[in-house]
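>> received
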Amino acid sequence: MMSVFSSGLLQKVAMSVMVLLTCYFMIFCHCPEKGTKHVDTQQKPRLLPQSPLPKSGPCNCYEGSTLLKNKLPKDQYEELLQRRAKELQQFKIRTTSVLSTPLFALPNSPLQYPIQGFHVQPLISTPVPGLALHAGQRSSYKVSLKVSKGVLTTEIADGGKVQGDGMTKLIMESSSLVILNYLLAKVFYTSTIYHIHTGDLVSFQFEEHEAVFPITIKQPLLPVLYNMGTSVSSHVTVITKTFLRYPQLKVLLSSIRRFYSDIEVIIADDSFETEHITGEHIRQYIMPPAQGWFAGRNLAVSQVTTKYFLWVDDDFEFTEGTKIEKLVEVMEAHPELDVVGGTVKGNQFYFSLLYDEGEEMEGGCLYRKSQGRFHSLSGYPKCFMASGVVNFFLARTQAAQQVGFDPKLQRVAHSEFFMDGLGSLMVASCSHVSIGHQPKFSGDSRYGRFRHPPSNDSMFKLQLHFFKNHLKCIKYG
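>> returned
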């Protein structure tokens, strides 16, 4: 019995010793204290991961796509390609900056710095928030900050040494971590190049550790605010473009007045023989003859002074279901939206745009998918997100003006506005607001010649996509 008891006791003692040793190593070897020295990682600082990022290459055109280079005159292709490449480079200069550089944080870094949301105005001195060093005890602490599009300054403090104050590289050193962090808290950045939207990268270094973080240099936008009243007429202007269809236009205007007596209506008119349209709250702008679809849209939108405009074709007709205020309600509830479409005689046409940027010289691949949609709109189950909508929509005036309607597109064009707005327009489609459509027009014989484009017009449109939109191929699905 004594031997068994002794053996069991020894086992318990041995287990207790092992547990104590394990706790000792966990507490004293892995938890830094004031008296322990910080162990640096041996990994060298880097901006990119060890495996390179995938390079952009040619995009794959969907089956049935139109290869745009085949629609160009062969003797002009190389020259067009060179001109397009030059335009693309200028576009990139205008729209990209160092802020698009991938940055990767290293593990176990003692450096503290802002990783997002640090904005400065050009040429304005601004404090850099959040800079600090968290390191174990040393006899001396030394950090450096380096920029390329500005200069760095800090306060001079007793016990601290500063080099490069007012220069692109600032070095700070102190035997006290408290004083060094005080110097870091007083660092200011001032850009030296005036640019309204660019950026800088800051290199922040301590011993073997380096962090790189971005500074956004941006001139703030002045907010555009609309002093709207309580009626829908103070929110919305109805706009349309007419050409040789005065009987249809008059039906449209009469239907508008049945439901909205004082809403402003703007008409862009490029008919050959113009007819003066009279009535309160109607503005008719006479254009040179046959200027085209998008030229008229541009003119009409340019004259809108309300927050929103409602686009309607001149052969549409307001009905009991044409509730403009319901579209306004959606836009006001979701201020991020720029365009909200309805239905035309029950047709809720919409589409999604899928774009692969592709390779610089060949261009990208664009696929327009009819009835393609994204998720539903929060709070409005009859609405969902899309890339483009039917030719009856409420639009935010400022957003539409920024995209514009290309006057080169004179005849059939609609999707092109949403293509040009891809990446800048937030679009939704709703089924609970509708408009009617008048019977097919059979009036002026000249209308058909302009309404239905010949094959060379379609060829021109494809060539325009090749150059302007930098596309390799396009598919309408």
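>> The longest strand covers residues 427-437.
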